[in-house]
Amino acid sequence: MSDCLFCKIIAGEIPSLKVYEDEHVYAFMDIMPLTKGHTLLIPKTHCKDLFEMPEDVARNLYAAAPKVANAIKSAFNPVGMNTINNNGAEAGQTVFHYHLHLVPRYDETDGLKVQWNGR
Ligand code: 5GP
Ligand code: ZN
What we know:
Blueprint: H1 5-11, E1 18-21, E2 25-29, E3 39-43, H2 55-76, E4 80-84, E5 100-105
Antiparallel strand pairs: 1-2, 2-3, 3-5, 4-5
This protein binds guanosine-5'-monophosphate and zinc ion.
Organism: Solibacillus palustris
InterPro entries: HINT, Histidine_triad_CS, Histidine_triad_HIT, HIT-like, HIT-like_sf
Protein name: HIT family protein
């Protein structure tokens, strides 16, 4: 999609810090990281959100997710990781090309303001 920010990132028209890439997906550092190593994993096929994601796109995205998580783990040595996906403006989605946030967690001082299960 020509006016989509993340399609432009995939096309290399907007620079990004690449974490992982294969035929189907691209992963890159979030420009406003919640914690050190916060990464976004996106399908190369444009789809707006989870509701519109074809099954093969979902399969390829999640096939890559452990590889991306382990690349982040190797680079930053977090003690845990949250994966988050916002669908719809009301749910906090601001870029309308599906993306899975991978947010490494360190300890109680990692500065993450978003609380999940009390931490
Ligand atoms: P959302 O709020 O839609 O779930 O998440 C969108 C994410 O995209 C945000 O965390 C935001 O920081 C990130 N983001 C927005 N514009 C850019 C950009 O131009 N480059 C990168 N690397 N991340 C971006
Ligand atoms: Zn797109």
